[in-house]
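Hi all, long-time lurker, first post. I run a small reading group and we've been trying to get comfortable going from sequence to structure in the token notation. Rather than ask abstract questions, I figured I'd post a concrete chain and ask someone more experienced to write out its structure so we can walk through it together at our next meeting. Sequence below, copied exactly:
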Amino acid sequence: MTYNDYPLVSVVIPTHNRKDKLIRLIDSLLKSNYPRNKLEIIVVDDASTDGTCDTIRQLYPEVKLRCNDEEKYVAESRNIGIKISRGKYIFLIDDDNIVDPNTIKELVEFMEKNPYVGVAAPLMYFLKDPRRIWCAGVKRNYWLTITKYIGYGKIDDGTITSPYESEDFPNAFMVRKEVIDKVGLFNSKLFPIHYEESDFCQRIRKAGYKVMLVPTAKVWHDVPLPSTRFNNRDNNNKYMNMTRIYYTVRNRIIFHRLYSKNILQKIISVLSAISIILLHYTPRMLRHNRNKFKTFSTILKGIIDGLLMKL
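-- Answer (accepted) --
Happy to help. Here is the structure in token form:
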């Protein structure tokens, strides 16, 4: 492809109270090898209280900025960004990443050559250990409701060289705008946070498109390493935030009710989800919260609302 042949790419970044990480991401995007005049950066600030909007407005006047008056969560923030985007491709990425200079170019060239691909994602590494894989795709057991990130925690030994299909992707991926026009935006009513990417990619796959990893594209994700993730204060915040606890529980059940293949799988997956929630997640959530009653009540409400498919 020649310089003028590259299509416009809109990078949509939802953010909330992570100003410094957002600046780091934008700086890495501005170092991209992709033609600068074909790159549209959109930041949707989800009611941050750390001065994110003012800072981004001052530092990056070329960035499209939308500032939510109240917290709308990640799915709706992405939708807001998508609605004002102009690109043929939308690159959705969370604010706690650094992007390799070649990533956008690699994803675009792959999708231009493969029109059957609706979503393409980079190989994702731990920022704190740059050769250690965080996610090289997703595998999901629809009976046990267990989701695994391919390659998680392993050092990249160079064996992942060819693109392959994935159930879905978290954190960072590129999607065709025409695909969004066909399947719709993120379902921010049912999945405002947690499983929103999974639901989105499942709808894209059902529409006949492939969801694929492109290993020549790379990002580094600023999340705790496997050896420290359960002792990390930032990571454990999700076990102390009642909103996150509720949606973690509720959406696991709803997702598998929606995407189970038959009645038997639906029943077993729901029972499995409830068992995992009560036996695995509940003790951890209770351990990190002083208000045990409120925490357990939130878990119980998530289970009930999941069974009732309650919005």
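A couple of things your group might point at:
The first helix runs from residue 19 to 30.
Residues 229-307 form one domain.
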